């Protein structure tokens, strides 16, 4: 099978060129702010912009809330469905697939029309309410990934035996979930959390249409008004995404390998 | 301490009808937040929009909004959206499959394989506004590739008719997340092509071409088609990249809907809802194709 290798390397080379050239070009462009020689001026300009700091801080905060809410919503549901209500599984699978079917822009349009300031639950009536709505929108966007991460994590451990053992020791259900199940699926939950963060941090559509001062709309605004800062921001965003994905890879090494017993 | 001892053995079993109510409450209490969340933030907003598409300004049931979609501007928007999604999905699927085959069947070094898989995870999430910035720096009027092509080969791609703000510009940009997504989705299927199968084919005297013609591609075909429809839906709903790249100059459905939400550009909320309904119908069709085909494809994954 020697000749096979050549075509594989050619395909790899073309692919590598397509994926690396834009990164190199963006990096090179981000260094050109000062005429004549390369400098990191565009990065300095970005980091010293107070709007960068506030919008990035805001998106990070919303992202953290989205992670917490996502865990609270998904973990107990997956636990009870796996343990006691397996007939609900197809429904859960279907619901968690919906955010992939319904485009984000359609979802946020629905939110704006349904939860306007004159409705029963006027989320968009106040800034705080809109923040809550934005958090929930991000939980929804990340739902397919959070669900799959947690579900995979629970499949890998024997939750029936763990639950029985904990009950014999006298633990109640809240305690079983928080101090038995959660630590055992921590790696899976954290993977879901980092993926949520990667999706949320630069999200544009929903934040922009809800009029919140998030990082995504800030990026778009800079893109429309500046020359060199956008490429610096693209590199920064790429590094953040890489960091989140890298954490998931790193965590995967610590995942418990003790799968459900077969004996 | 509080768990009644007699429930120990039954905790892990499916409760038969007529079990004590307290226990039923507990498990439903755990699932309830999920259900309430899904109803509030997925199902109700969608149903609300779908029903709003059939309500006229006067509050009466009407099909005018749906009929209103069949104007030149809106049909053109759907048509460009469908073309961009289909083209980027098609090229992305073929290129992704080629790269996956190269790393798995072409026996590239293991380290390279895991590097590509990691990179795919990053690139498939590197969408939105920053991706648009990256491609402007690459293929924009002052982009590195544009300048190098002009300086070294005297090729002015902009004079040749290329524009990053055009159909092909957007398609080329979308490929940056479509190809990695394809690699991530199709890799398990390519892994599932057992080495024994190609060895068996070789033993029986089949050429490499015959193996792929009669064994390899027919097995990969369902996964390929399924992922293709997922890529289509993925591109169809995307807006941030297109908006950052072209502003509102490219008339695609998500940008039209964005303008409608922002400032009632169509001057008819019902028509806006109908536009959203059209998007849901198209992405839902693509996903239903994916679900049906992937259920069929799983037979070969055992």
UniProtKB/TrEMBL annotation, chain A:
GO cellular component entries: plasma membrane
Predominant cellular place of this UniProt entry's protein: membrane
Location in or out of the cell: Cell inner membrane; Cell membrane
Transmembrane segments: 7-27, 56-79, 91-112, 132-150, 185-210, 230-252
Topology versus the membrane: Multi-pass membrane protein
Keywords: Cell inner membrane, Cell membrane, Membrane, Transmembrane, Transmembrane helix, Transport
Keyword Nucleus annotated: no
Protein's name according to its UniProt entry: ABC transporter permease
Originating organism: Devosia ureilytica
